[in-house]
C-alpha cells in the first residue's frame, strides 16, 4: 500500500470508533500536557529565582565560615572556623576593591513592645549593611559607627515587625524588649516582600553588631560577612583581595586550605538554579510517568482492538495482505492516535500555561524544546506500545482469523 | 489442450484438539484443468471447506502435495502465499466476509491496495467496472448492512474478480441465500466460467451442483465420486422455470 492510502485507512479506522479513540488518546493528551506544564512551571520558578537573586545586588559578596570543599556553608564546626569582628575590621581597613562591608550576627528572639509580642530574627550588622543590601528606610534613621563603638541599644525594625507591634502608631522613639533587653526603635524599613532564599526580609530587626553580640547572642562569633565590590567589573579582584585578607587574618600558612568560602552573586544564582533544575527534572519525570501510563492505555486498547478486529484481519489476509501490511496498518493507527493525542496535549498545555501566567503567581515558561521533545515522545510511545498488538495481529493465520467469533 | 491448474497428490489434513486427532482429509487426489467448472459436494463435516482452504492457499496441508499452475506450494513462503491469494485466486465465502462500515466500492478496491506490482493502473476505475459487471453499478456507495444477502455476495464476487484471477474458489457461496438469489449467483458463475475463469465451488445441494460441468463428491475426507456433467443446467432457464412455478402456485 502507498503511505497515503495507509494513513487514510488508519484515520478512517480511528474515526469509526471516535469515543474509544478519544479515550485512548486521553492518556497521551494528559501525559504530554503534564510534561510540558510541569517542566514549564519548573522553568518559570527558575527564572523567578534568578530574578530575585539578581535583585540582591550584583556586586554582593558573602563570606561564610568553613572550607568550600566541606560542603560550602559550614557553620560552627570548629572554633577556628568562626569569624570575629576583627575579620571585618581587617577587611574594612585593607580592602580597596570593597566599597562596604558588614558582619552579620543572627539570632532569633522574642520581642515585646507596642501592642504585644512577636517572634522574629535579629540581625547584628554594621551601618553599611543598608548600602550593601540596597535597602531603604521608610522613616527614622540608621545607626552610625558611633553606635557600634558605644554598643548603643538602638534598632531598626522591618515592616512586618512594625505591623505586629505598632499597627497604628509611630514606633520611632519607642522602646522594645528583645529577650528582655530594651532597645530603642530609631527606624523602619520599607516593605520588600519575600526573598529568593525563602527568608522574609520584612520580618526582622537590625541592630549594631556589637550590641547584638554583647547583649543577645552572648559571644564574639559572627555568622557571616557581607560585602559589596566597588563595581561589578571588580568583583573578581575584590574576591581575591578578600581571600588574601581573610587568610592573613586567620594566619593561614601557604599550604593550608582556606577556612572560609567566598561566594558572589553568580555562585548563588548557580546554586539556586541547580536546585530548581533538580525540581524541574523531578516534576518532568513524574509527568513522564503519566505519559508512560498513557502509552500502556494505548497498548491496552490496541490489544482489545486486535481481538475485536480479528475477522477484519482474516479478511485482509485472505485477499492478499502480507503480515507486514497488517503490522504497518496497526502500527500506523497507534502512531496517529498518540501523535494526535500529543498535539491536543500541546494545545492543552499552552492553555494551562496561559491561565497560570495570567491568573496565578506561578509563572510557566513554555520552551519550544520541551514541546518538541514531548511530541516526539508521544510518537515514540505510539510505536513502542503499538508494536506488540500490531505484531500479534500480523502473525495471525488467515483461516484462524476468519473463523474467529 | 488445456493445462492442469490444480493438482493435489495424497493431500492429508489433520487437526489435533487436545490429544485427539481429527483427520479431515485422508489422501485426496484431484486434477482440475483450466476453464473447468467444478462443484464439490459432500455431507457436512466431509472435509469440503478444509480442502477449499488448502487449494485457496489459506491453509497448508499436513502432508501430501498441492501444485498450483504446476508450482509446488509447499516450497513457497508466507509472502508468496499472500501474493497468490492476492492475484491468482479469488475466494468467495459463505459468510461474504466483507469489511463492515466500508462501502462496496472500497471493499472491492481492497485487493488492489495489497497488489505490490500495481498491475491495475486505476484501482478505483477497475473496482467500478467489476461492480458493474456483477450488476451492482448503482450500489457502489452502500455499506454491507445496507445491502441484501445476494447483493453482498455479488460484492464479494466482485472483490474476488478485481485482480483478474484465473481461478475463483467459492465455499458454499449460496449457503445463506434464498433460491432466487442462489440461481442468480450461479448464473454469474456460469457467465464468468464462459469467459474463461476456472471455477471450483462447494455446495451441498444437488440442484445447484448441476450448474457445474463436473461434480466431485467427498465423504469422510476422501473422494468417493468424480463425474462429468454432459449437459449442465443453465441458470437463466432454471430461473424462468422457477418464476413460472411460482406464478402457477399463486394462481
Ligand atoms: N480448525 C479445526 N479444528 C479442528 N477440527 C476441524 C477444524 N476445521 C475442521 N475440522 C474438522 O474437520 C472435519 C471437516 O471439516 P470441514 O472441512 O469444515 O467440513 P465441511 O466443510 O465439509 O462441512 C470436521 O470433522 C471438522 O470438525
Ligand atoms: Mg464447510
Describe this structure in words.
Chain A has 405 residues and is an alpha+beta fold. Chain A has 13 helices and ten strands. In chain A, strands 2-3-8-5-7-6 form a six-stranded mixed beta barrel. In chain A, a hairpin with a 2-residue loop joins β6 and β7. The longest helix of chain A is centred in the C-terminal third of the chain and has 44 residues, at 265-308. Chain A is elongated, with a radius of gyration of 33 Å. Chain B has one domain: Rossmann fold (3-Layer(aba) Sandwich). Chain B contains eight helices and ten strands. Chain B has a six-stranded mixed β-sheet, with helices on both faces. Chain B has a four-stranded antiparallel β-sheet with strand order 2-1-4-5, covered by helices on one side. In chain B, α3 packs across α4 (123-133) and α5 (149-161) runs parallel beside α6. Chain A binds chain B through residues 1, 5, 16, 311-312, 314-325, 397-399, 402, and chain B through 53, 56, 58-59, 78-79, 82-87, 91, 93, 97-99, 101, 110-111, 113-115, 159, 163. The complex binds adenosine-5'-diphosphate and magnesium ion. Residues 48-49 of chain B line the site of magnesium ion.
How would you describe this structure in keywords?
heterodimer, A: 405 residues, alpha+beta, 13 helices, 56% helix, B: alpha/beta, Rossmann fold, four-stranded antiparallel beta sheet, 8 helices, 27% strand, binds magnesium ion
Instruction: Give the CA-based shape of chain A.
Output: elongated
Strand content of chain A: 15-25%
| Main sheet characteristics of chain A | 6 strands, mixed, barrel
What order do the SSEs of chain B take from the amino end to the carboxyl end, as H and E?
A: EEEHEEHEHHHEHEHEEH
Count the DSSP helices of chain B.
8
* Poorly predicted parts of chain B: none
Q: Overall 3D geometry of chain B?
A: globular
Query: Which structural class do you get from the secondary structure elements of chain B?
Result: alpha/beta
Distance between the termini of chain B: 51 Å
* Percent helix range of chain B: 25-40%
- β-strand percent of chain B reads 25-35%
The largest contact between protein chains, plus residue counts on each side, is: A-B, 21 and 25 residues
Order of helices and strands of chain A: HHEHEEHEHEHEEEHEHEHHHHH
How many domains make up the 3D coordinates of chain A? Answer: 2
Q: What's the mean pLDDT score of chain A?
A: 85
Q: Reading side by side through the largest sheet of chain A, how are the strands ordered?
A: 2-3-8-5-7-6
Low-confidence stretches of chain A: 70-79
The total count of strands of chain B amounts to 10
Amino acid at each position: 500500500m502507498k503511505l497515503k492510502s495507509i494513513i487514510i485507512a488508519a484515520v478512517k479506522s480511528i474515526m469509526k470508533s471516535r469515543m474509544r479513540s478519544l479515550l485512548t488518546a486521553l492518556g497521551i493528551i494528559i501525559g504530554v500536557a503534564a510534561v510540558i506544564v510541569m517542566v514549564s512551571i519548573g522553568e518559570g520558578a527558575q527564572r523567578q529565582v534568578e530574578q530575585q537573586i539578581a535583585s540582591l545586588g550584583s556586586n554582593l559578596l558573602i563570606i561564610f565560615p568553613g572550607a568550600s570543599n566541606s560542603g560550602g556553608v559550614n557553620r560552627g564546626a570548629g572554633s577556628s572556623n568562626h569569624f570575629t569582628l576583627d575579620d571585618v575590621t581587617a577587611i574594612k581597613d585593607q580592602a580597596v576593591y570593597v566599597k562596604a562591608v558588614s558582619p552579620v550576627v543572627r539570632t532569633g528572639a522574642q520581642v515585646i513592645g507596642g501592642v504585644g509580642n512577636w517572634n522574629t530574627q535579629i540581625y547584628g550588622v554594621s551601618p553599611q549593611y543598608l548600602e550593601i543590601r540596597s535597602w531603604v528606610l521608610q522613616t527614622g534613621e540608621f545607626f552610625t559607627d558611633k553606635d557600634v563603638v558605644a554598643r548603643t541599644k538602638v534598632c531598626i525594625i522591618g515592616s512586618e515587625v512594625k505591623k505586629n507591634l505598632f499597627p497604628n502608631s509611630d514606633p520611632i522613639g519607642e522602646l522594645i524588649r528583645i529577650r528582655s533587653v530594651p532597645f530603642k526603635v530609631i527606624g523602619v524599613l520599607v516593605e520588600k516582600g519575600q526573598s529568593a532564599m525563602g527568608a522574609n526580609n520584612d520580618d526582622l530587626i537590625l541592630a549594631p553588631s556589637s550590641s547584638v553580640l554583647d547583649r543577645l547572642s552572648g559571644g564574639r562569633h559572627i555568622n557571616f560577612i557581607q560585602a559589596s565590590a566597588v563595581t561589578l567589573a571588580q568583583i573578581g579582584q575584590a574576591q581575591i583581595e578578600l581571600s588574601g585578607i581573610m587568610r592573613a587574618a586567620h594566619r593561614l600558612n601557604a599550604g593550608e586550605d582556606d577556612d572560609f568560602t567566598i561566594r558572589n552573586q553568580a555562585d548563588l544564582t548557580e546554586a539556586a538554579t541547580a536546585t530548581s533544575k533538580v525540581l524541574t527534572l523531578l516534576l518532568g519525570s513524574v509527568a513522564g510517568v503519566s505519559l508512560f501510563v498513557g502509552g500502556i492505555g494505548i497498548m491496552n486498547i490496541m490489544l482489545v482492538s486486535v481481538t475485536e478486529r480479528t475477522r477484519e484481519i482474516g479478511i485482509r489476509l485472505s485477499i492478499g495482505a502480507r503480515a507486514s501490511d497488517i503490522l504497518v496498518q496497526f502500527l500506523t493507527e497507534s502512531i496517529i492516535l498518540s501523535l494526535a493525542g500529543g498535539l491536543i496535549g500541546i494545545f492543552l498545555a499552552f492553555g494551562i500555561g496561559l491561565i497560570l501566567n495570567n491568573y496565578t503567581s506561578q509563572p510557566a515558561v513554555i520552551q519550544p524544546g520541551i514541546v518538541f521533545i514531548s511530541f516526539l515522545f508521544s510518537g515514540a510511545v505510539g510505536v513502542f506500545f503499538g508494536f506488540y498488538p500490531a505484531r500479534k495481529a500480523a502473525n495471525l493465520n488467515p483461516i484462524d482469523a476468519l473463523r474467529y467469533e | 489442450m488445456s493445462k492442469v491448474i490444480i493438482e493435489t497428490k495424497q493431500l492429508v489434513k489433520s487437526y489435533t484438539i487436545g490429544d485427539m486427532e481429527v483427520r479431515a482429509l485422508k489422501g485426496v487426489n484431484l486434477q482440475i484443468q483450466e476453464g473447468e467448472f467444478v462443484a464439490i459436494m459432500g455431507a457436512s463435516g466431509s472435509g469440503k471447506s478444509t480442502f477449499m482452504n488448502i487449494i485457496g492457499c489459506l491453509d497448508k496441508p499436513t502432508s501430501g502435495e498441492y501444485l498450483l499452475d504446476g508450482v509446488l506450494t509447499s516450497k513457497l513462503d508466507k509472502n508468496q502465499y499472500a501474493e497468490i491469494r492476492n492475484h491468482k485466486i479469488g475466494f468467495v465465502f459463505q459468510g461474504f466476509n466483507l469489511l463492515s462500515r466500508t462501502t462496496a466500492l472500497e471493499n472491492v478496491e481492497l485487493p488492489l491496495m495489497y497488489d505490490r506490482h500495481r498491475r491495475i493502473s486505476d484501482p478505483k476505475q477497475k473496482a467500478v467496472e467489476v461492480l458493474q459487471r456483477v450488476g451492482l453499478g448503482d450500489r457502489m456507495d452502500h455499506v454491507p448492512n445496507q445491502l441484501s444477502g445476494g447483493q453482498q455476495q455479488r460484492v464479494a464476487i466482485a472483490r474476488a474478480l478485481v485482480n483478474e484471477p484465473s481461478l475463483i474458489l467459492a465455499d458454499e457461496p449460496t449457503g445463506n441465500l434464498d433460491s432466487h438469489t442462489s440461481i442468480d449467483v450461479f448464473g454469474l458463475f456460469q457467465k464468468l466460467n464462459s469467459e474463461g475463469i476456472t471455477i471450483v465451488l462447494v455446495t451441498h445441494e444437488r440442484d445447484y451442483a448441476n450448474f457445474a460441468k463436473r461434480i466431485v463428491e467427498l465423504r469422510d475426507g476422501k473422494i468417493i465420486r468424480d463425474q462429468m456433467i454432459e449437459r449442465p443446467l443453465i441458470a437463466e432457464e432454471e430461473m424462468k422455470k422457477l418464476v413460472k412455478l411460482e406464478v402457477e402456485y399463486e394462481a
